[in-house]
């Protein structure tokens, strides 16, 4: 299954992200209940004027947006830029990030959010990587730390490397898998994911307790 975007002849020759932005702009503008004139007024107030006709042309696939337009549109629509760049989907459905690269929509969102690289390892949670293979786990974390080294500001990067942060991410991943399995009415998988989520919760609690003890020791 592939996450598709609406298209027409006028969009031929556009890259996959440009087509996605055009589809998302139309969807989000309507969801906000904004006319093209109202959205154009908001863009003008932000110092990035795009006429109403220009917005219509973008939505029809007749005009591309540049990076300044993209950020201003996200601000005017009160969404993350990611909401314009990616499908409104969180699943194993495939989405093209470049003509010769695609991944699941779930991995694409993690990548845009700065949570994981857009690699084959991104198709699996940290929890499953750990369970499968020690070498695979090591390679996953090598790629993830390399990704974070240039993606995040130094302060955030240091926080991201803390054991408690890693444990919290693993809890989040486990719950994501649990919810997906539960929504799919897959009782066997849901039971397994629930057990894994509880394990990750205990690991997070242990890290938080360790931090609490360290704080108390510092005060002493």
From TrEMBL:
Gene3D superfamilies: lambda repressor-like DNA-binding domains. Residues 25-84 form the HTH cro/C1-type domain. This is HTH cro/C1-type domain-containing protein. Residues 187-214 form a coiled coil. Keywords: Coiled coil.
């Amino acid at each position: 299954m592939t996450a598709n975007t609406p298209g027409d002849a006028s969009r031929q020759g556009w890259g996959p992200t440009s087509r996605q932005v055009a589809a998302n702009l139309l969807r989000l503008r309507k969801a906000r209940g904004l006319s093209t004139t109202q959205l154009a007024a908001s863009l003008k107030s932000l110092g990035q004027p795009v006429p109403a006709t220009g917005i219509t042309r973008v939505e029809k696939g007749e005009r591309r947006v540049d990076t300044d337009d993209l950020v201003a549109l996200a601000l005017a629509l009160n969404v993350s830029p990611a909401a314009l760049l990616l499908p409104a989907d969180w699943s194993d459905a495939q989405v093209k990030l470049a003509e010769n690269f695609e991944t699941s929509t779930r991995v694409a969102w993690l990548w845009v959010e700065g949570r994981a690289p857009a690699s084959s390892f991104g198709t699996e949670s940290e929890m499953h990587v750990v369970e499968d293979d020690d070498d695979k786990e090591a390679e996953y974390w090598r790629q993830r730390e390399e990704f974070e080294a240039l993606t995040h500001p130094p302060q955030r990067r240091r926080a991201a490397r803390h054991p408690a942060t890693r444990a919290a991410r693993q809890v989040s991943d486990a719950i994501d898998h649990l919810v997906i399995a539960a929504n799919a009415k897959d009782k066997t998988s849901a039971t397994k994911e629930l057990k894994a989520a509880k394990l990750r919760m205990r690991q997070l609690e242990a890290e938080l307790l360790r931090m609490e003890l360290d704080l108390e020791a510092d005060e002493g």
